[in-house]
Amino acid sequence: MSWQAYVDSNLLATGKIKKAAIHGLDGNLWATSADFSLPKAEVDTLIKAFVDPAGIRSAGLNLGGTKYVALRADDRSIYAKTNTSGAVCVKTKQAVLIAIYENPVQPGEATKVVEGLADYLIGLNY
After folding, report:
1. Could you list the residue range(s) of the whole structural domain that residue 44 is in?
2. 84 C-beta neighbours (distance < 10 Å), count
3. CATH code at 78?
4. What is the pTM of this model?
């Protein structure tokens, strides 16, 4: 399966995720939804936050020009929220999944979709 198919079929097609991207841990884009473009600086900041989340905890997380408040940040998952949307970012062995959901989708619904795909990819050594 292509990386784009993972974005389209495993994330967007669930109806829980509005925008999504998969980037390698080097920051390079592997796949993205049509309306979701992340500047390299935002991706680099996100990837660094899996190691040291202090920066996003104090200053927030920018994704696609939208500023999110970090709710959870550890070496696997980063969850963030605005008033009307949220982000679920999960690191695998070789990539980071970045997904944006919007109201009325609940955080737990989006988290289940993204974490599930991450677990699958980790099982495949990605």
Report:
1. 3-123
2. 9
3. 3.30.450.30
4. 0.96
